[in-house]
Amino acid sequence: MTDFSVRVDQNKYLPAGSQEVHAIVTVEASGAPERAPAAEAAEVIIVDTSGSMSYGKINDARKAAQTAVDTLRDGVYFAVIAGNHQAEVIFPHYGRLAPADPESRQAAKQAIAGLRADGGTAMGRWLRRAADLFSAHEGARPGAIRHAILLTDGKNEHEPAPEFDANLAYCAGKFVCDCRGVGTDWVVAEVRRIGSTLLGSVMDVRRPEDLADDFRAMTEAAMGKTVADVALRLWTPRAATLNFVKQVSPALEDLTGRRTPVDELSGDYPTGSWGAESREYHISIQVPPGQVGQEMRAGLVKLVAPATGEVYGSGNVLAQWSDDPVQSTRINPRVAHYTGQQELAELIQEGLQARNDGDVETATARLGRARGIAERAGNDETARLLAKVVEVDPETGTARLKRVVDKADEIALDTRSVRTVRMRKDPEG
Amino acid sequence: MVSACPACGTGVLAGESFCERCGHDLSAAVTAAACAACGSAAVGADGYCENCGMLQPSGRDHVETDLPGLAGVSDRGRRHSRNEDAMALAAAPAALLAVVCDGVSTSARPDEASQAAADTAAGVLAKRLADGDDPQAATRQAVRAAAAAVADAARPGEDAPACTYVSAVVTGRKVTVGWVGDSRAYWLGTHSALLTVDDATPGTHMLTAWLGADAGEVVPHVRTFTTDGPGAVVLCSDGLWNYYPEPESIAANALGQAPLAAARHLVRLANEAGGHDNITVAVIPFGQGEPGETTVAFPKERSD
């Protein structure tokens, strides 16, 4: 069985009268020697078949989807959806998920080989179709790991915004969806919304020929999940208010608005399914002012299965008021690191937005600062991408926007701005 | 004699951690506490209140004693780094007794002084009463022994440890109060009253009498009163009466509750009012069973 460990990093000491508590909660799931029984995993592969996918991209998409099908273990339930302005389940044909075996894989790959690029883009409809397949499967096999892969290359043009919103809301909690954007015509913010709502990753795939490897890796990762529908349950004291709950590693995800109340003082935040992996969360709580010497529990964090109430692990976020400034002014290095990572993401997103709006001054200031932070914090990939957008004079430190920027670099920078790096072992070194 | 060890039945004193005969751990018998900060009953096994989150005080920071017929709570308060108050309670067949001592902050090791005084006095009171002494004689013996215990704790080169003293012995419808310093006894009932007169310069906290090696010969005030009806005796340190000096205000917040609930409630009120000092409250309700026999107006002094 999967074991969860919960570790809390914080400086619990607060100056007298101070009220803001910050903590980084590291959750590590490990010890899953036996994989989830195959029948408890369900996978839906969603391939964009809109008109823009023609000219070769559809070819690579076909290969990628076929690779994903090949990666499915025997017994895993699956389906393949072709999406344009509509959604069509191209395999299987009987409206439910099919168990993977040599014959079903062969049949699915044949159906994929017949995919043609034609029509518009309405991603919400594709997802809704997947949600219905998963719901039917969940009814028969509760607790199954439910995962989808969504590939797109374009803007969501053929679905009115209110319909897209409703479709996304409909899908939330029904499955986890990893999203991939290929080419340079897709909108990062749009796909990020899908990934956020459905608790999955979003990545850019620069070259269509890289899709097959990427799909294999994603499917393998999905096969490695062993526990579905895990929630982070947070208790806070009656007089406290929660500032935020954010996932900060492996990628930034603000969960604050995703709370499902459990009782007066507790709420659940969805984290999706877990394999052997580690994630980190930044929690900030406003507590009532306390007296020097007092200690309080400002938060109790648990990893739970909301359906059964099973608790996988827990940790305390504490506050203790101190009149020793040496104690109370120290910032926990991990809190500082992830505060910096959040600032970096904001700077990049604001900088790119300003750049697109023609506000060169703001863009230069934000991206220039981002580059400095990325280099110091060890965000090597981000620093490399930033270097393609903004130059910094090593002598004077003056930043200047580059005139010509590859659109693919800009998309990669935007997409990956939410991906964080772990703290270096020795932050001072 | 006092209360019985749950394991072997030997008489043990309230506040003792282990039975002297069989070594049974007596601390487990202490009632599960309510939160010292918000009063909620939901305190987890890990010591944090499940309502307000506050870590519950440990050791002497927050002490509760709950015996048949009487209870006491002693709390560090919100400003002091330790609890220098102490209390000792006992429920003997013939009498209920309680002692509250408040260590003098400017002396050395006041916390040790108050604990030694309270434990010694309660032990002497219980023994003397069991041997048939009258409550006044027993109280004088107890104060003498407590004063000696505090004086003996003095070491060369430091201010002598010092503390106040107040005790109550309740037998039938009579209460015998003894005190040195400014810890107080109150009667709460139809005619609530302060039973003690502070040994302090009026309007200040400058003690004019205390227990300690530098106190000279200690002459306690000892008085016996007869009740005028059902009510309760409250002993307290100045951590409570600084905020609630009026007998009526204490009565309004203590009467009608079980002794432990009343003591907790008063301690919480003092904390909510600021908790600038240690707070100790002992509550002994009595007289409820026999109001028809009441003939003497309260308070009426019998002696001294």
TrEMBL record, chain A:
Domain VWFA as annotated: residue spans: 42-227
UniProt cross-references to CDD domains, sorted A to Z: vWFA
Alphabetical list of PROSITE patterns matching this protein: VWFA
One Pfam family cited in the UniProt record for this chain: VWA_3_C
Name of the molecule in the record: VWA domain-containing protein
UniProtKB/TrEMBL annotation, chain B:
Matches recorded under Pfam families: PP2C_2
SMART domains from the UniProt entry: PP2C_SIG, PP2Cc
Sequence ranges assigned to domain PPM-type phosphatase in this UniProt record: 69-286
Stored InterPro entries: PP2C, PPM-type-like_dom_sf, PPM-type_phosphatase-like_dom
Recorded GO MF terms: protein serine/threonine phosphatase activity
Gene3D superfamilies linked to this entry: PPM-type phosphatase domain
Domain of life: Bacteria
Protein name: PPM-type phosphatase domain-containing protein
Organism from which the protein derives: Sphaerisporangium rufum
